[in-house]
Amino acid sequence: MKTYTFLEAPRFGERVVVEKMLETPFSKEIRICMTKGSIMREHTAPGPITIMVLEGCVTLTSNGDAADLECGEMVCFDAHVPHSLEGRTKSVIRLTLSKGDALKRVIDLVKA
Question: Residues in domain Cupin type-2 (predicted)?
Fold first, then answer.
């Protein structure tokens, strides 16, 4: 048995930091580290996703509605639902992607 901790040694930078933590037979578990004011521009995912705030606070916007998600809160989206994130404080987020989704897609979002 291997254990994983999303809160051990998170990496923060000038841009959003995206790291794959583990891959299962059905999902990819991603750690996203955001600083206050950092943004992941509006985008969609090709499959369903879950977003859970493990530390800090982010504003999540989707279809014109915005909500502040705090530590322990999470949301789920079906495929192709537009959404964006903004760091309200220094934050660590767990993103669950479907197995067929590409980590590169998420990394490319924070490069632009």
Answer: 33-94
Q: Quote the DSSP letter at residue 106.
A: H
**pTM for the whole thing?**
0.94
Q: How far is CA 108 from the centre of its chain?
A: 13
Mean pLDDT of 82-107: 95
CA-to-CA separations, 30 to 4, 61, 63, 65, 98, in angstroms, rounded: 11, 20, 24, 24, 11
Question: Contact, 92 vs 56, CB < 8 A?
Answer: yes
The CATH code belonging to domain 17-111 is: 2.60.120.10
Q: What is the pLDDT of residue 51?
A: 98
Q: Where are the domains of the chain?
A: 17-111
Indicate the average pLDDT of the chain: 94
